[in-house]
Amino acid sequence: MNIFPNKKNALLIVLMTAGHFLFAQIDKNATKETKNLYNNLKLISKEHILFGHQHALEYGHGWSNENNKSDVKLVTGSHPAVVGIDFSDFSGQSKEKTEKEKERLKKNVIDTYGRGGITTVSWHFNNPASDGGFYWKDGISTASISLIKPGGSHHQEYKEILKTIADFAHSVKAKDGKLAPMIFRPFHEFDGDWFWWGKKYTFREDFITVWQFTVSYLRDTLGVHNFIYAFSPDNRFNSEEEYLERYPGDDYVDLFGMDDYGDFGREGKYDLEAAKKKLKIISGIAIKKKKLAAFTETGLESIPNSTWWTQTLLKTLQSEKLELAYVLVWRNDITSPTHYYAPFPGQLSVPDFIKFYDDPYTLFENNLKNVYQKKFRLK
């Protein structure tokens, strides 16, 4: 049965009727809006996928800090359904800069919630025990996961950083008096070696310990109940066993993700069969565990392939019976002539992106209504 026969037709959806939909969210005290979002994302993923763009409303190709603007909206008339932000400046900066960033992102999150969109949060976490920022830099960076775990030399500092995140989570109160839910995606691409928390620099047991502490401290000690927790390695796995090698357990993950640029045209290399296999793995795990799955990052820098949206991305997403809540492409830099992942007016792939937008399978912000309620509509 097609739950959503056509996204252009309004359809009332009633969730949790007679206990039919029972999903394994890890925070039993999650806010009503967070629970409803979780359930709605699961239901949407059965027939559709939401489109997301990182930093979509903060800046775009040649512009920044303009109210209610995004490159995606300039092209399609709608913002992306999922808007990415980052907690990068919540640590390793002056107190003044951190507070300024918190206020700026607070408006972003509340505005997105108010429009009916969804926020996902990545965390390019500046190394708390050394210089070097969030990337690993030989001769500068310290392998710090073992240092921030309970008993480690920088554990107290890590708790203070998590307190900053919790304060932000408690601050995003919208006009309706409710806290805006967020999909929180810490320690992403942990199977690579480009971040200081990467596999090359961490023991499996330490990574799991820090992940479990992070969730428990935010949820159980600091009282954050508007997060959905996403687990997303890069694409360096070929089996369910490899994907779950650093999995912290069912009590600490809500959403299974994957970041994959390498199979989708980076440096001219395409391996869509490998991509399908990996997406099938994360979708299958989510179905089995009654949790969410999403394609948490992808894209083709500069989008030189004029039909990439329909002939590469969409075909791959529709080639298997996948249940993915959303697909997110990376940011559009303000000044770079080449560093962008979503089209803007005049860009080569605009006609194909409009076909992608018009396809009944894809959903954008203007297709959603009441996604934070038990009853919601697709427009």
Automatic annotation (TrEMBL):
Catalytic activity: Random hydrolysis of (1->4)-beta-D-mannosidic linkages in mannans, galactomannans and glucomannans
SUPFAM superfamilies: (Trans)glycosidases
Signal sequence bounds: 1-24
Keyword Disulfide bond annotated: no
Alphabetical keyword list: Carbohydrate metabolism, Glycosidase, Hydrolase, Secreted, Signal
Keyword Transcription belongs to the record: no
InterPro entries: GH (IPR017853), GH26_dom (IPR022790), Glyco_hydro_26 (IPR000805), MANB/E (IPR016714)
One annotated GO biological process: substituted mannan metabolic process
Residue ranges of every copy of the GH26 domain listed in the record: 32-366
GO molecular function: mannan endo-1,4-beta-mannosidase activity
Cellular compartment(s): Secreted
Name of this chain's protein: Mannan endo-1,4-beta-mannosidase
